[in-house]
Amino acid sequence: MELLEVKNLSKHYKSFDLKDISFNLPKGYIMGYVGANGSGKTTTLNLITGILKSTGGEVRIDGLSREEGEKAYKEKIGYVGDESYFPDHFRVKHIRTILKDFYPSFSADKFNGFIREWNLPENKLIKDFSRGMKVMLMFASVFARDTKLLVLDEATNGLDPVMRTEILKLLQEYVMDGERSVIFSTHILSDLEQIADYIYFIHGGRTVLYDAKDELIENFLLVKGETANIPPALKKELIGLEENAYGFEAVLPSDKAELLGSAFLFEKPTIDQIVIHYIKN
């Protein structure tokens, strides 16, 4: 069953249009939402959370749209962005109190457990927290609630490798019961290589690619070789051809592999390589 349903989601600005974004995210899965800066990732996530209102389209979380019940809709969402949304003059105790009053499902015991485990200072002002501490405090606040969907917008930025690994592990545990899901926008695409089940690639406000991660990787080849050896039929199919001191590198749809012959090296690409070459294209 689908946890998140997005149909023809659009948002019009004077200088940018997000147009007809559609996908389904089943329960128990993690989606990586990727693209260059300014491609529409944050706009999409803000439309899903209800921070922005759409120009057109529909979003449902566990079958419920925001229009059918805004309070219940937002109760299902946990959100972590790349900037702290807690007031600078607050301390942990103030956040604990507000979350307890605002969210019926908030567990002070779970919250306190994360605060202790991650050594977050109880008596420091939030403005004196490091960037990593602020991010971990936001994760403590969402993991302490009974949510259905985590929406993460560059949320692991600023974390050291140990804490990032810890968060990725917790995200996998979060979806393990088969009832919850995560949509995760990040520039650290190696994180998505580890934990994502689906990849949605957006560029210029439009869909470029959308598939299961493993299928996406199988659908492309990373090709290398001498630029002078590229025949016209192959050059037409190469995506994001980049010349370097050793020749060239590009990605190629797997179903065009017969064009390669024996003059080129090829291998399975990473998600990072697919995205980079598409953006260059």
Question: Your description of this structure?
Answer:
There is one protein chain. By secondary structure, this protein is an alpha/beta fold. It folds into two domains: 2-204, P-loop containing nucleotide triphosphate hydrolases (Rossmann fold, 3-Layer(aba) Sandwich); 216-280. It is built from ten helices and 14 strands. The protein has helices spanning 41-49, 70-75, 92-102, 108-117, 131-143, 161-174, 189-195, 213-218, 232-237, 271-280, and strands at residues 2-12, 17-26, 30-34, 56-61, 64-65, 77-80, 149-153, 181-185, 198-203, 206-212, 220-225, 239-244, 247-253, 265-267. The strands form three sheets. Strands 6-7-8-3-9-10 form a six-stranded mixed beta sheet, with helices on both faces. Strands 2-1-4-5 form a four-stranded antiparallel beta sheet. It has a four-stranded antiparallel beta sheet with strand order 12-13-11-14. It starts with a strand and ends with a helix.
Question: Could you spell the SSE succession in H and E letters?
Answer: EEEHEEHEHHHEHEHEEHEHEEEH
Strand order of the largest sheet: 6-7-8-3-9-10
State the major sheet. Answer: 6 strands, mixed
Whole-Å distance between the termini?
A: 36 Å
CATH homolog superfamily of the largest domain: P-loop containing nucleotide triphosphate hydrolases
Number of strands: 14
Multimerization status: single chain
Give the C-level CATH assignment of the largest domain.
Alpha Beta
Overall number of domains: 2
β content, as a range? 25-35%
SS summary, helix count: 10
What fold name goes in the CATH topology slot of the largest domain?
Rossmann fold
Low-confidence stretches: none
Shape: globular
